[in-house]
Amino acid sequence: MTPTLSTPLHFLVISLSIFTILPTYNCSYLNYADALSKSILFLEGQRSGYLPGDQRLSWRQNSGLSDGYGESVELTGGYYDAGDNVKFGFPMAFTTTMLAWSVVEFGDVMPPGELRNALVAVRWATDYLLKTVSIPDRIYVQVGDPNIDHNCWERPEDMDTARTVYKVDAPNPASDVAGETAAALAASSMAFRSYDPGYAETLLRTATRVFDYADHYRGAYSDNANIRDGVCPFYCDFDGYQDELLWGAAWLRRASQDGSYLSYIQNNGKTLGADDNINEFGWDNKHAGLNVLVSKEVLEGNIYELQSYKASADSFMCTLIPESSSSHIDYTPGGLIYRPGGSNLQHATTISFLLLVYANYLEKSSQTLNCGSISGGPSMLRKIAKRQVDYILGENPKGMSYMVGYSNYFPQRIHHRSSSLPSLKDHPQSIGCKEGSIYYNSSNPNPNVLVGAVVGGPGEDDTYEDDRADFRKSEPTTYINAPFVGVLAYFAANPNPI
User: Fold this and answer.
1) Whose CA, among 123, 243, 372, 467, lies 20 to 30 Å from 107?
2) Is pLDDT of 375 > 90?
3) In whole angstroms, how far apart are CA 279 and each of 315, 387, 401?
4) Model confidence at 14, in pLDDT bands (50, 70, 90)?
5) What pLDDT shows up at residue 279?
6) Comparing C-alpha atoms, which of 498, 196, 195 is closest to residue 359?
7) How far is residue 380's CA from residue 206's CA, in Å, rounded to a whole number?
8) Does residue 233 have a cis peptide bond before it, meaning omega lies within 30 degrees of 0?
9) How far apart are CA 78 and CA 123, in angstroms?
10) Which residues are 138's β-sheet partners?
């Protein structure tokens, strides 16, 4: 797991003259459809539990089969969030929301086979999330002691570390994880509505119940003394729980069209900080995504009572446009969106996703974006997103694809246990906690290619050393890939957006 603290953004204002001298690249050879396929395939490498017969990354095997046993609850399944063997509920729920949103917004342009794969990836998560909230007024937020896990370098198939279960019971609060879980289940209900109506109804009904828990017992899950040492500093709630309440309500409104959720996001916007931190979107801070999501109600539904959300979404988009007087974005010399803290590509993929979604909303409502002295249509936003995507796939100063297995030049030594250790097929004997150190310290490429994994990415100067120990750059995460699925689906269908 990459401890990427969700600290406030400190943007560097750059002028148009600086931006326009950034290098441009010829990306005519990029294969977005191939990247889409691989971005979904990566999630199979992150699976925990009993693997199905059609598992494509065959070097992975069953793992975590006793998860929940000590608590007399069945918690197998779900995803390992990154290169370790812990199941963190907060980022897993966000990953699920973004995968589902990718299907909701871009599923209609996905090739049928990849749409199926995407839905399978969503369901692998939602089946697990349903288990975590199967008992009313309780949520299981994590499986695995990260402090012990991070002192080992072993395959998930060999895990002999404590599979500690972390839970929160009412009246103790978990508004952030419960709110994000409600969002994930509600968004997923929309993704499955046409394909499995019964499952979709189960997801939506459960989302409603989980949101009630999140809203009734307000507070951050990481403030609970009994679990704090297990979730912090890894996926602590750094930015507060209020955004997840609005986020969960917004998704329930979208999925159910229930007027009570519309009233909730309208009446609670200011008290829950809807106007704060609008320039960030990720596993801990949902503000920019919330504003874009709710803007659909204004742009397409003419619900002007929510105009403040749209104004915040407009403001966020204007910060991304270099020619705008309100441009407040930090770029690497090669043109990649950058912010400090590690695992930088999570920002590039989430922001690209929001750019494309907002472009679609503007296009459907025949509206433009006004940023002071300049204005532009959907194509302007899509071009900014495309620049980020092309950089990630290889159009950058190093000429390296930051997606593993894509093109001929990609990271070989990623910070990922099961990728860096020999598979059970090649090494049937157990590899103990400390016995994996020789593989961690090796300069050899990882023996198992984690196809589709997008790593944390280069530094602010576009450098990348392909060093397994430099986890801030070399570790992939599910929440980098999840929004990238939707982004790549769009560009696979529209490689030259206008």
Assistant:
1) 243
2) no
3) 9, 19, 27
4) very low
5) 77
6) 498
7) 39
8) yes
9) 9
10) 169
- Distance, in Å, from the CA atom of 491 to the CA atom of 350, rounded to the nearest integer, reads 15
How much of the chain exceeds pLDDT 90, in percent? Answer: 84
* Backbone φ/ψ region at 111: left (φ over 0), alpha (ψ -120 to 50), beta: beta
Do residues 377 and 44 lie in contact, with contact meaning Cβ atoms separated by under 8 Å? no
Average pLDDT over residues 72-92: 97
Q: Residues 380-415, buried b or exposed e (16+ Cβ, 10 A)?
A: bbbebbbbbbbbbbbbbbeebbbbbbbbeebbebbb
Phi, psi of 141 (to 5 degrees): -100, -10
Alpha-carbon gap, residue 478 to 437, rounded angstroms: 24
| CA torsion angle 227 231 233 234 (round to 10) | 170
Q: Strand 138-143: give its sheet, edge to edge.
A: 87-88, 138-143, 165-169
Residue 143: strand, helix, or coil? strand
Bridge partner residues of 87 (DSSP): 143
Among 86-100, 131-145, 248-262, 273-287, which stretch is predicted with the lowest mean pLDDT?
A: 273-287
pTM here? Answer: 0.94
Q: Is 475 a catalytic residue?
A: yes
Whether 468 and 440 have beta carbons less than 8 Å apart is answered as: yes
Task: Copy the structure tokens of residue 399.
Answer: 């000429």
**Average predicted confidence (pLDDT) for the chain:** 92
Q: Residue 443 — φ and ψ, nearest 5°?
A: -90, 0
What separation in angstroms does the CA of 230 have from each of 154, 217, 360?
19, 21, 40
Q: Reply yes or no on whether the pLDDT at 5 is more than 50.
A: no
- Confidence (pLDDT) at 28: 52
| pLDDT tens digit sequence for 438-478 | 999 999 999 999 999 999 999 999 999 999 999 999 999 99
**Is 415 part of the annotated catalytic residue set?**
yes
Q: What is the pLDDT of residue 434?
A: 94
Q: Which residues, in sequence order, are CB contacts of 169 under 8 Å at separation 6+? A: 137, 138
Bridge partners for 1 per DSSP? none
Which listed residue (287, 347, 415, 416) is catalytic?
Answer: 415
**pLDDT at position 322 over 90:** no
Nearest CA to 254 out of 206, 293, 306, 202 is that of 293
